[in-house]
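Suppose a colleague, Dr. K., hands you the sequence of a protein chain of 247 amino acids and asks what its three-dimensional shape might be. Before reaching for any lab equipment, you can write down a predicted structure in token form. Begin with the sequence itself:
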Amino acid sequence: MRNFKITFEYDGKDFCGWQTQAKGERTVQGEVESVLSKIFKHPLKVIASGRTDSGVHAQDQVISFKAETRMKPLEIQRAMNSLLPKDIAVHEAREVKADFHAQYSVKAKTYRYTILNRSYRSAFLKGHALFYPYPLNVTAMRRAAKVLVGRHDFKSFQAHDPLRAERQTIRTIKKLVINKEGSLIHIDVTADGFLYKMVRNITGTLIAVGAGHLPPQEVAKILKAKNRQTAPETAPAEGLCLMSVKY
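The predicted structure, expressed as tokens, is then:
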């Protein structure tokens, strides 16, 4: 048995998220496992670094799986890319040590949320950035974001999902950077782990601050409350992308 690590990207707008669904919706996991099962000629399950929701993209998602094969990693990469749909592309295939686990070996992940902040929409960025046509105060957003950096209980930014409600809601945000490039605002969040819809909930709060609906100092109170009802609404999925996974 050999252990393989696959790094790949996908455009999430036509997927019902990462995880295989019982109802038969199109998912990234379903497409990847179907292709690998064809390559190795038997059903094969993979482990991902984490699940992304419907409409969320990935620039560097990572999976691992074990298989009995003589194929070289490069051969696996080429075989996958020849069979996968056009909205999934494999960057790299590597053989790794037996104890490598795509989920449990993760040290940190970085997500980026992109906002198109101008008066008119973009035909090219549709499905890849949140179109927000009203002014946003990036300085105020940065001030509010500072409160979230560090080890905290992020329960106020955890969406409810009975199927995967984490009991432990303490996470460490190692870096939270907001950059403005022309009409694009990028919110990059690096953490040791994320709660369900955590980045989208943080983004929704920062947008409320930038729009002047919420004073920056209120974010500390929301964090301390440990209550999702105290935070503004969740930002839509299309602006979110998994940028990198560190091991």
